[in-house]
Amino acid sequence: MSSAAHTSASTRKVIVAGAQLGAIHVDTPRSDGVKRMLKLIDDAHKQHVKLIVFPELAPVTFFPRHLLEGEDLEAYFEQEHDGDATQLPNLKPLFDKAKEYKMDMYLGYAECTGSDHVHYNTSVYFSGDSGQVISKYRKVHLPGTFEPYEREGATNQLEKRYFKPGDLGFQAFRAPGLVNDTLNKKSGVEANKLETLGKGDPILGMLICNDRRWPEAWRSYGLQGIELLLCGYNTTAWAPDLIGNDEKTSTPETAKAEALFHNKLSITYNSYANACFSINVAKCGVEDGKYPLIGGSCIVDCDGEVMIEAQTEEDELIIAEIDLAKCRRGKEKVFAFEKHRRVEHYGIIVEQTGVKEPDLL
Ligand code: CDT
């Protein structure tokens, strides 16, 4: 069968959900957040969802806006003693429920490693098929500052203080059982042969919040044939010290409109340019009466079009049936990397971090 025939004939359909969370306040017990998440899993199950995606640092308030130390800070972290996230006491009910429903799940949380007490902003991928966590991602791009802002009333974003940059890179992985009739090693075929491309178990990758603004992160996954990218976020709607402001974004309303626009711009363009679907999920609403976070959770198709977008800033499921076979067109034509990329000109991207302007005239 030619690959064009494959594109039109085959389907790799799966029903997926973004589980947006509304505000979680400083004094909201972790167990309340988890209870709300369990309800979303139940509702998703009733609608035949096979994969559910939660936001970044899902069950807690967005604590990097607060200057914390000692026990007050540690309280937000899941202390991972043996490396098996499914046994973390605060999160176990979520994994148990996903296991009961055989549902796959992306879950973001603050990780404290058991061995050396390192803090990461982490997400894990739980496979309902295998009943295990099959992939872990640690946020690479940490926004904000190490020191709090000096301006009184400024909203901090102290991720550089509280987390180490992720050390796992961008590792794509296959999710078993997410779609039917896939090729695997037992089929006696090899990966990376023309006739098997896009026919194995779905290829997924994870990002966390600020990572979604960096095309380098998406392209690292694109080069591994990713078909579905998952990303949870907490994006402040009004934080002039962090984002800067000018006449266009000088009010809370216009700044929020721009934050929503930049969210959508990042996820739609990069889904298109890597020919993958993406599920992008907010924690949103106004936390503690004064810290607004944008909503705008979206499922985006592999042509960069929004399939469904959240309508509220509360707990809300967005659900779509996606057909991963549709990724083949972009991967085989406009973004056939092996035919069109010119890596001999891309060295600057990895050799240089900051900007170096050309010499002055
Ligand atoms: N959580 C997180 O990474 N938030 C950042 C804040 C805005 S920086 C422009 C984000 O990228 O959404």
UniProtKB/TrEMBL annotation:
Keywords: Hydrolase. PROSITE patterns: CN_HYDROLASE (PS50263). One of its GO terms (molecular function) is hydrolase activity, acting on carbon-nitrogen (but not peptide) bonds, in linear amides. It comes from Exophiala bonariae. Residues 14-324 form the CN hydrolase domain. Transmembrane segments: none annotated. Gene3D superfamilies: Carbon-nitrogen hydrolase (3.60.110.10). SUPFAM superfamilies: Carbon-nitrogen hydrolase. This is CN hydrolase domain-containing protein.
